[in-house]
Amino acid sequence: MPPLARQDGQDTQIAFDYCFEFMTLSLRRLNETLLALDDSPLNLVAVSHSNKFSRNGCSSRDRKLLQTTDIKANVVVAKDGSGDYATIAKAINAANGGRFVIHVKTGVYKEKIHTNKDGVTLIGDGKYSTIIAYDDNTAKGTTMPNTATFAISGDGFIARVIGFQNTAGPSGDQALALSVISDHSVFYRCSISGYQDTLYAFALCQFYRECNIQGTIDFIFGNAIAVFQNCMIILRRPSSNKYNVILAHGREDPGQNTGFVVQRCSITVETNTKNKRFEKD
Question: Carries keyword Isomerase (predicted)?
């Protein structure tokens, strides 16, 4: 490497050393992250507050919830009245703070749900068979965070084979399908569908595996530590004279330990999608 050009030597060298150390630390953290991600489809990895990926973030009992076909639910939600509740919101209100498993049977549930309950698990009958859908958006005058069809701020949230949709369409401006402020949250084989600002990974540690995520502008955004593994990222056709932005992480301070890791995901587009690009590194 050629000698560093200097004007006043000492200050320039200090700045260079600082940048080199920062880049080295960032690369080391990225390397540790990738090494920690397991190839096994059921050995899920979660993230802790200390920014270290650990299998302890997802307990053995929780991992069983993600792989078993024998659902032992605390309550069942069914639109036809055959379950304990007819709406998901009422079922979540019954949660007591421990691990609370809700089996949501096939159907489209037109609900807008914002909850801070810890330990909630939603298990559907398929990512496109059981769907929570609503159409709120900023064009109606709603603030961006409050447009979310489903917003979770309780820790330890788990979703499996269920869909979250905002049906406002491309003319709805900002319209969130899902907003997540849940530490050690896991989304497994879910669908998350909208247009602008589909998934708001707002903060804390989040894991998405084998999920389908659809949108147009900034449709995966926020300031969380989030891992997207084996997901399908689908760019939808935006409104006229607009283009697609896949990732828009909100970190403003380079000292923050937040970021998005996209590993073994596929990126595809709908017919006639205009453009795509990554925002930030």
Answer: no
